[in-house]
Amino acid sequence: MTWKVKVPGGGWSSPSISKGRIYLTSAVEKDDGLALVALCLDAANGRTIWNRPIFSIVGKGPRMHRKNSQASPTAIVANGRVYVHFGHLGTACLDLDGKIIWKNDGIKYPPVHGNGGSPALVNGKLIFSCDGAKNPFVIALNAKDGRTAWRVNRSVNARRKFSFSTPLIIETDEGARVILPGSDMVGAYNPDTGAEIWKATYNGYSVVPRPVFAHGMVFLSSGFDRATAMGIKLGGRGNVTDTHLVWEIKKGAPHTPSMISAGDDIFMVSDGGIASCVEARTGKSHWQERLGGSFSASPILSGNRIYFINEAGVVKIIAATKEFNLLATNDLDERTLASPSVSGDALFIRTAEHLWRFEKK
Questions:
Q1: Domain tally, the chain
Q2: What is d(CA 303, CA 64) in angstroms, rounded to the nearest whole number?
Q3: Domain containing 322 — which CATH number?
Q4: How far, in Å, CA of 224 to CA of 250, rounded?
Q5: Cα separation, 354 vs 291, whole angstroms
Q6: Hey, which of 11, 233, 268, 311 would disulfide with 71, CB 3.0 to 4.6 Å?
Q7: Mean pLDDT per 10-residue segment, the chain (361 residues)
Q8: Residue 293 belongs to a domain
Q9: Which pTM was predicted?
Q10: Domain ranges, residue 296
Q11: Is residue 307, in this structure, part of any structural domain at all?
């Protein structure tokens, strides 16, 4: 461990690292409620550079799931700006000194379990899902001023409409596409207009995992009640479920952690701690092993190592190979639901009260 610092308030947003700085969001208790804040820390030593309140909540705030927080979406750092998102509570843009450039708290929808998914930045637009209890939609804000650029309703009338997924941006021969799962469907959207290019349908709600792109396919998991991992071939128009769904796997499919691509394979871990490695193009299983504990954080790849962190703060490091090879186990002894981040040879992990930096050996 290089350093460990206490983070004010609480939140499960992951560290965003850029040019020697770390950006986080948090919900900090105050006399009459909560302050939703953006934080900037020095990556070299963990020192706080600035702490900027963005929005205020009177009282305890909206109800949320026990595995959620009022500051779960991860910040985006790009082009000299920091974009922070608090779901239905608001979105804001700051400069690198913490000065607020714009705020937008006018996008309203009925959340279930609180905020969750992070935005994506593409073609000058900040895009995120608003999959609440009713009338779910996808929205794009102009990154320059925070005003709505477009808004499109989800095209499937799911019985349970709420979901929390983060968009994946991919480049195709026809331009960028926004791949964004929701309840009962995943859609591919034009980032400039919001037009739905294609969709694939499934049975699932409360969808959390972000999709993964590799080998001309997208990989995702369908959410509750029973998750199904699937690989979908890119292309087509309209509903492509019957023509582009290549494979499905139910055993070991994650409800919460995102998958990860490494070489020709896809790695995943279920919420119950079953890790799997499958062939990306076919879904053929290479191995499946129990890691132990419950998982919410997504695994990350650094070099040829994959880091899995369970909710109790136990880190399992495995080789990104077709044979299961557990390389190391470390225990932080503190609860965590946030996905870790890598910058260079450094690994950053946010736990319930602290932010940690480790150097790769």
A1: 1
A2: 36
A3: 2.40.128.630
A4: 12
A5: 24
A6: 11
A7: 95 96 95 93 98 89 78 95 96 98 94 88 97 96 98 97 96 94 98 98 96 97 96 95 97 96 97 98 97 96 96 97 97 96 95 94 62
A8: yes
A9: 0.95
A10: 256-361
A11: yes
